[in-house]
Amino acid sequence: MDDDFLVIEDDDDLLIEDDEGDAPSVDQHAWKILIVDDEPDVHVATKLALKGFQFDGMSLQFLEAMSGAAARKILEEENDIAIILLDVVMESDDAGLNLVDFIRNELGNSMVRIVLRTGQPGQAPERDVIVRYDINDYKEKTDLSSTKLFTLIYATLRSYRDINIIEASRRGLVRVIDSSAEMFKEQFLDNFASGVLKQVSSLVAGGRDVAFSLEDAAAATHDRKEMTLVAGTGRFAGNVGKSAWEHFPSRVAAAIEEHRERGRGEYGFWVDGSYIGMVVGNSGRASILYLVGEGRPAVIDTHLIQIFVRNVLIAVENLYLRNALIDTQREVVYRLAQAVETRSKETGNHVKRVAELSKLLGVEMGMDEHEAETFRLASPLHDIGKIGIPDAILNKPGKLTPEEFDIMRTHAQLGYDILKHSDRALLQVAASLAYEHHEKWDGSGYPNGLKGNEISLVGRITALADVYDALVSERCYKKPWPEDEVHALLREERGKHFQPELIDVFFKKLPEIRTIYDRYRDTLPVNEDD
């Protein structure tokens, strides 16, 4: 662990952020003191004794109530009172004690410090009151000289300040945990990086007690040669995918490069009022968070940012590894599928078109993003069973005989047998769609004559995607059909070969489907005899 993450420069008299509206906070200008007493002379004497008082560079602001009822109204409006100097006997013998119960139990305010002051100790014995009520001190009015009152207020304010620091730390850690949990739902790096910026912004969101104002933020990767923006807010938002060298200030870029060259480790540092967090992996690649702001957050907020950034950047490294595995898995699937398609004289773009079309229809049929992406990755294996079909049948230019067609139909079972024993989610999906993509909605398909919802959703969708692509594409045994004839056939097979709702979704998404086919158009081989 790099010491830069552990050492923080001390700032004098930094205040602590409190962004929860219903919780008390330290006022930036004065400590609020509420005097609750039915004797006007007590109010006057208290304010006189504390005239000119300061604690942590802030003076006192007095709020006054002559009864418990009046105090309730003030407390319902003011949520950042530090101390209440409370008389016990006012409009009733227990008015002060009732107010304590109201503050702690009805308002739920456990932060304000309550000091009972009584001129009639017999009405509220000290031991009983301390045991039964959540108060912080008990004083007889005759004992409170000017000096003792000064000491009482000073010590009580110190307690209030420290409790606020602890509470701010607790809330900050809750925000870190909640933010991390929210971000880790993301499966893909670009979404994850955007989530990071959203959540880290909430950690340092400006308020009246915050010394740091976050303006913009950026996430970047550095692979030794290039530093690239992967997410951004504010000035960086429109530059994702571009070089970070062009958008980061020279001093920031130089500091990033300096820390990256130190090698593997975690780093956090300030440059010109902005915070940079980095994780450098074994390969020398760095993941970077750049928080552009003004000022410097309180010490507690700096620690929270560092904890958050450290966890985030470690997660980013793990996400890179995960994505690398997914990319490798995707590549293997496509290479295997292309080998099968090449053997059957079909183009590799067939599997890409079917995969993209399958995901598009899957989302429209209710799959979430993760399910649809898994479906897309598994889709190229729908015809993997053709690897066991003889070339003479697979590439026969004319119509198959009944015996040959029976052999061709076995590819669904063969594909299932190849894939069914894997416990990987992607290959389990691939096994289902390989097995069922020749089943029909009316039960007339093969290999098992499944009907309606007995066919898995991936099987139903792959059936439509595979048939559509076969009709609109050139094959060794046929020319492509005109689009209007294909559409007419699909409508005719609605409720027969294909699920009715699926056909409806297909025509709803026709513009996007045409875009897919424009992107993955087949490149036909040149005929040397022409």
How large, in whole angstroms, is the Cα Rg? 36 Å
N-to-C order of helices and strands:
EHEHEHEHEHHEEHEEEHHHHHHHHHHH
Helical fraction equals 40-55%
How can the largest sheet be summarized? 5 strands, parallel
- Total strands: 10
**Reading side by side through the largest sheet, how are the strands ordered?**
2-1-3-4-5
How many helices in DSSP terms? Answer: 18
CATH architecture of the largest domain, please? Orthogonal Bundle
The CATH first-level class of the largest domain comes to: Mainly Alpha
Quick one: CATH superfamily of the largest domain? Hypothetical protein af1432
* CA distance, first residue to last residue: 68 Å
The structural class is alpha/beta
- Mean pLDDT level: 81
- CATH topology of the largest domain: the name is Hypothetical protein af1432
Strand-residue proportion = 5-15%
- Shape from CA axes? elongated
Walk me through this protein's architecture.
The protein has 530 residues and is α/β, with parallel strands linked by helices. Helices cover 48% and strands 14% of the residues. The protein is built from 18 helices and 10 strands. It has helices spanning 40-49, 68-77, 95-106, 126-132, 146-183, 189-203, 250-260, 299-343, 348-364, 369-378, 391-394, 402-409, 411-419, 425-436, 457-472, 483-492, 500-508, 510-519, and strands spanning 30-36, 59-65, 81-87, 113-118, 137-140, 212-222, 227-232, 265-271, 274-280, 286-295. It is elongated. Mean pLDDT is 81; it is low at 1-27, 205-212 and 524-530.
